[in-house]
Amino acid sequence: MLALFGRKAFMKTTKAFTPVLKPRADQHDFGVPFQLNSTSALFQEGDPVNMKSTLKKCKEENVSFTGALVATVVAAYYHASKMQGNPEPEGNFKLSTELNYNMRQRVAHPAEETQVGLYVTIAGCPFLGAEGVDMKTTKFWDLARRAREEIVKHAKKPVLMGMPLFMMDRKLHMKAAGQFLGDYKVKNSVSGDVNISSVGRYKQEHALANNRVLTVENMHIFAAVPHIGTSVTLWASSMNAFNYSIGHKCDHEVGEALFEAYVAVCENASLIGANDTMLDVLKRLDLYVPSY
What we know:
6-stranded mixed β-sheet; two-stranded antiparallel sheet; 38% helix
């Protein structure tokens, strides 16, 4: 039953979806037979002082870091859309967004068995795709708070949270995909705009044999998406500083513009005033691209 309704929802959603950032020409449609797609990667390490300042500002504004990360991604995506040459949207700026959370730290310790596989839960921010954001009037920190509220609300709907995990748990072989898709194809293999993966703080010291210790100074995450997925995945992890990474399927100049804006806003979040709108943030950081 879940698979049946999942197929209908999947087809309805992907048929209606138009990505904000155009997939580059080498991205094949998703269908049977499978074709592999490339994923571009970029990495950057932040400044320890900026991480402390950003987290302090989040606390002052009564916002979770994840909420601030959502607002950051919206600002960065808007900037990249302008760099791509997109016209000003007629209404609000809309973005199909999902979030991954690392749940491994919530596994009982010591674990009863060896931990193998993906420990993740997925939440959404459907209001970003449905209502969108008025970039001229919406305040950055208000959007961050709204995102946090929506994530909590989404977490109380187990069917919505369970569907992506159900799909991830299926072994996607040719026969199963053929039964699920039929002759339907997803254009450019893109199912959404962006996946935001907040990994959180990573343990710095790990005990090894012979009483030795492995110390991790930084950690950048990347996972290629050879088949279907969002056109962009943005990761954020932290050690002594924020570690940023992106996997994208856009033209390289657009992907670089998105990543640079993502890092710039997150690193400088402490400079964002309580009443700064989304456009104010971009102007403050010299990321504003006027429409002509």
